[in-house]
Design goal:
Order of helices and strands of chain A: HEHHHHHE
Helix content of chain A: 55-70%
Bound molecules: magnesium ion
Distance between the termini of chain A: 21 Å
Number of helices of chain A: 6
Strand content of chain A: under 5%
Shape of chain B: elongated
Structural class of chain A: mainly alpha
CATH class of chain A: Mainly Alpha
CATH architecture of the largest domain in chain B: 2-Layer Sandwich
Radius of gyration of chain A: 14 Å
Order of helices and strands of chain B: EHEHEHEHEHHEHHEEHEHE
Strand order of the largest sheet of chain B: 2-1-3-4-5
CATH topology of chain A: Four Helix Bundle (Hemerythrin (Met), subunit A)
Largest sheet of chain A: 2 strands, parallel
Helix content of chain B: 40-55%
Oligomer: heterodimer
CATH superfamily of the largest domain in chain B: Reverse transcriptase/Diguanylate cyclase domain
CATH architecture of chain A: Up-down Bundle
Number of domains of chain A: 1
Amino acid sequence: MESNTGNPELIMSEFADDPDMCDLVREYVGMMPRRMEQMTDAFEHNRREQLIRLAHQLKGSGGGYGFPILTDKAGKLEHFLHDMTGDDLAEADAEFRALLDVCSKLAA
Amino acid sequence: MKQDLNNDTDDKRHSVLVIDDSEDVHRLLQARLRQENIDLLAALDGRTGLAIAEQDSPSLILLDLDMPDMDGFEVLRELKDGSSAHDIPVIVLSGLHSPADKVVAFDLGAVDYVTKPFDLMELRVRLRAALRMSDLVDMLARLAHVDGLTGLWNRAHFDDRWAACISENNRHGRPLSVALFDLDHFKSINDTYGHPAGDAVLQSFAKLIKRECRASDIPCRYGGEEFALIMPDTAPEDAKFVCDRIRTELAALSWPAHPERKITVSIGVSGTDKSVAVTPEQWLEDTDKTLYRSKKGGRDQVTAIDVESGNMVEASAKAA
Ligand SMILES: [Mg+2]
């Protein structure tokens, strides 16, 4: 994917050093490829409601796992999709790519 | 309110229901609250959350405001609006930049809020504070219904429950009996041995009733030396059997403060095994008359009647 090659630096969880959290964060990060796949699928098939839901869940959980930037980007996409008047998800391309970019860089 | 006289809130394990649409949030809370003395229940949407709240009556609800389909505000509204779970305290989980949401949530009856993403310490502290408060509210509600000297339910509680039991009997024809107890010559115990001795008798008798009745029965101190025992799902024959045992055990007790003086009780029982059209007041009056017959008959005895026919009934012959 285009965004993966843009910036190779990883985003570390704020809880990377918390022994109570590291297993949990690793599990969370481990599920990201699947989440990205689901979002890409929804985006490509123009399934707006599904994409809103997925973004919403990342928004709700990201910060809790030490990734506030994930909450931020997911919130922006969710917001955009909510306010969008047209039917074509391509309008949300920038917000969608930004979120995917963050997802791909998360590290435990 | 919890209908349990032995409800000890001190080391109670609480259950907390988390309603949030993100599984990741549930997993996170599960891990972060592992050390707290609580059981977490999980719901991924508002509808399910409401159902769990009503069914399991958790001590507290952590509610996400921002959920698809039914959001947290709607859940709060339904919860507070006539749901049986309406007095369960709710802590709202809200996004960082939505102060207006918090105001609305408070207006809808939330007790507190925690901002997402959670600060672990803050979440724990707020959770504990809310649980402590709900324990206190429970305790106060309970104390208003408990007799201070004996620890039995008081007259106010009796009146509440008696009316409820009667309407239950009227609607479903479930058996119901009530017993009134009057300690014999109690005044002379106070007069002869002093009030502490009298109080000890009241307390011992209360303990005896509590021990002998079933968990579903409702033992009350009715006033002075009068006690009452509501026995739901109990026909008068079975009620008389229970009361006979209480009477016998009391008569057999020895009293350190006055070994020479035994204590006895007179008891009136009335009940039915079918639906009857008798008012709570009339039913009690009839029971009181039955108690009077026990007094008249020489005290230390149980008289039992069928409340509809007024006929005397004998104790069932079941084994203890
Ligand atoms: Mg949410």
